[in-house]
Amino acid sequence: MENKKRNILISEKQIRERISQVGAQISKDYEGEEIYILSLLRGSFIYTADLVRNITIPTRIGFMTTSSYGNGEETTGTVKVVNDIPDDIKGYNVLVVDDIVDSGITMNFVMNHVKKLDAKQVKSCVLLNKPERRKINIKPDYCCFEIPDVFVVGYGLNYGDFYRNIPYVFNWEN
User: Fold this and answer.
1) 121: which residues sit within 8 A by CB, 6+ positions away?
2) Average of pLDDT values for 83-96?
C-alpha cells in the first residue's frame, strides 16, 4: 500500500478546526454539568485527546477496548469487550467517543452496554460518520465529518497496526 499515492480526504487543519467547534458545542450542551468521556481504544485515542482539550466543563475520562475488525477492512459483526469501563459511571452523562461509525455495530453495542450500567444519559461523538455502511440504525449525536464509503486511515485509524500517527485522514489512490 505504501507505494500508492495518498489521497488526503481531511487535512490536519480541517480536523483541528472542526474538533474545536464540536468541543465548544459539547461544552455548551452540558453547561453546568459534568460528563464522563468514554474513549473506545485504540482508534479514538488521538481524537479523544484533542477533543477533551476543547471541552471547558468538568470532564472525567475512561477507556474501553472493543474489537470487531481484527486487522481487516470489514467488521466481523461480533463485538468483543477486550477491556471494560474502569469506573463506576452510574448517574453520569456519558459521551462515547470513537474514531468512526460505519456499520454501527460497535457503537450500538457500547451504548447499550453503558445504559445497563445506569448512566444518567448516553450520547455518541465520532470523528467520522460513514452512513452508507450502516447495518444498524444509529446516528451519532456529535460528528466532525461525514465521509463516503471508502477505507480511510490516519488520525487514529489504522491499516494493520500502522498509520494511526498520521495527522490527517487519507485513503490510497488506485
Assistant:
1) 93, 94
2) 96
Residues 42 and 65 sit within 8 Å (Cβ to Cβ)? yes
For the chain, what are the domain ranges? Answer: 11-150
pTM score:
0.92
Whether 132 contacts 148, CB under 8 Å: yes
Total length of the chain = 174
| 148, 120 contact by CB (below 8 A) | no
pLDDT in tens, 25-70: 999 999 999 999 999 999 999 999 999 999 999 999 999 999 875 5
Q: Which residues are catalytic?
A: 102
CATH class of the domain whose range is 11-150 = alpha beta
Helix axes 45-52, 12-29, angle to 10 degrees: 60
126-160: per-residue pLDDT in tens? 999 999 999 999 999 999 999 999 999 999 999 98
Distance between CA atoms of residues 110 and 80, nearest Å? 10
Helix (H) or strand (E) holding 115: helix 105-115
Strand 80-83 vs strand 59-67: parallel, antiparallel, or unpaired? Answer: antiparallel
